[in-house]
Amino acid sequence: MIFLDAAATTPVRREVLEAMWPYLSGEFGNPSSHHTLGEAAAAALEGARGGVAKVLGCRPGEVTFTSGGTEADNLALKGIALARQAADPRLNRVVISAVEHPAVEESARYLERFHGFTVDVVPVDSAGLVTPEALAAALRPETALVSIMYANNEVGTIQPVAELAAAATARGIPFHTDAVQAAGWLPLDVKALGVDALSISGHKLGAPKGCGVLYVRGRTRVEPLVHGGGQERGRRSGTENVAGAVALATALTLAHAERPELAARVAGLREDFIATILDTVPGALLTGHRTERLPSVASFCFPGTSGESVLLELERQGVVCSSGSACAAGSDAPSPVLTALGYDAEVAQTAVRFSFTSTVTADELEQAAAAVGTAVGSVRTLGRG
User: Fold this and answer.
1) Most exposed residue of 29, 56, 332, 350, measured as fewest CB within 10 angstroms of its CB?
2) Nearest C-alpha neighbor of 300 from the set 329, 277, 319, 326
3) Is 321 a catalytic residue?
């Protein structure tokens, strides 16, 4: 099997398993317990928090552990927007882009349905980019929060987050970015990015599913979504997943150390893969920005096919990939991301996304490119028949 669906999830790294194992076995204490076993768990939790903070360039107290990227996005949007509205009822608008992950979009729509917010959606250009000018035009005196993703999970386009954040913060508006796909591939220094909140998911980095992080700038108020014992400095109640926190911190630290060399290597392989597909598959369309894209993502539309049929044929040949976001799997509707980029519904439904792990090889991608040509040709032939 050639696994090219790393944007959906990644295998757990051996180093991560070894780091978290003690907290799944002998060191199983509750970090809120005041005995030796609990204090050891609390020390591990705070060590993990410090490890994450070091990569993000923030203070440990600004790191909140969550169950994953979806919860982190929900806490950022709902928590910050509701806290700001409570302080000033006039703040009743949130701004998102047209290509956000469902965790962001649905959080915004929740605020609209149940708390009277207006959701302002910033358009993107044909490459999936939000311009600072487009964002500035969407900002209002009533805007409580802006949330624009760092890198798109379907087409890989990287947003100019530092410029976008500056446009918001110049108006005194907090800026959140969903960095779930960016983590491990792009710089995450929150001061350089200028963001007030940032979300990460562990299983995109070689940690297990079920662990995530939300960074929130120190003085930014957040209304908690989960109430109870007041863990995570009151931002997220519930007994902490110590093993998950250790796993995420380990995976993030490893990815941060490896990123400069790894990103350059994989970007080179991605470019070769893109060139091969465009040269050998008639009518193939590369989606997303040609250069401002994640090193690990190459996404295409293959007009005259069905994306799902191409996927089935590729899997039959041993290549595993996807038609887009795993969170939208099973939907018959065309990708909202691709329609936002200007693709019509018929073309959007031919999309296939290839996303690479850190260990992908040139030989694997060469085999995969050959399989794509065969699969697309077969599906088109069947369609004509």
Assistant:
1) 332
2) 277
3) no
